[in-house]
Structure formats: C-alpha cells, structure tokens
Design a protein that fits this description.
Layout: E1 6-11, E2 14-19, H1 33-47, E3 50-55, E4 58-65
Parallel strand pairs: 1-3
Antiparallel strand pairs: 1-2, 3-4
Length: 75
Amino acid sequence: MAAGDIETFHRNGTWFNRIQGEASTLGPGFNDREDAIAAGRSAATARQVEHSIRTEEGPSDDRNLFGTHPRDLIG
C-alpha cells in the first residue's frame, strides 16, 4: 500500500479506518467489521485510492482499487 490509501484494521475489539501513513483514524471506531469496511470503501472511492482490510494478525490480501490513482499514470 502507498501513503494515502485507505486501510480498515482491527484493534482491541474495534474496527477503524485510516489513511495509510497517518496515525489518526477516519471517524469513529466500528463494532461491526462490515460497517467499517463499507466506510473504508466509501472513503477510498471518494479519494480514488486503494482500500485494504487487515486483522490484528496482519495484512490481508483483500484489496480494492477505486478509480485511477495519480501514481499509476505513466508519464
């Protein structure tokens, strides 16, 4: 993941979203995994960046790309 992408993650029984490379979370925590994922995907779509989901155990292969990110453009 690159800085600026959205990450949904689990910590101490709560799900959060954050912009990769930043310490603060986007909005409140979620008790439900699916609610956190929906909010993370929405934020990724709005920013046209990648969204990934990880658990406390480590990164997941579950990634979604929404739109074309400027880093992916050639030239």
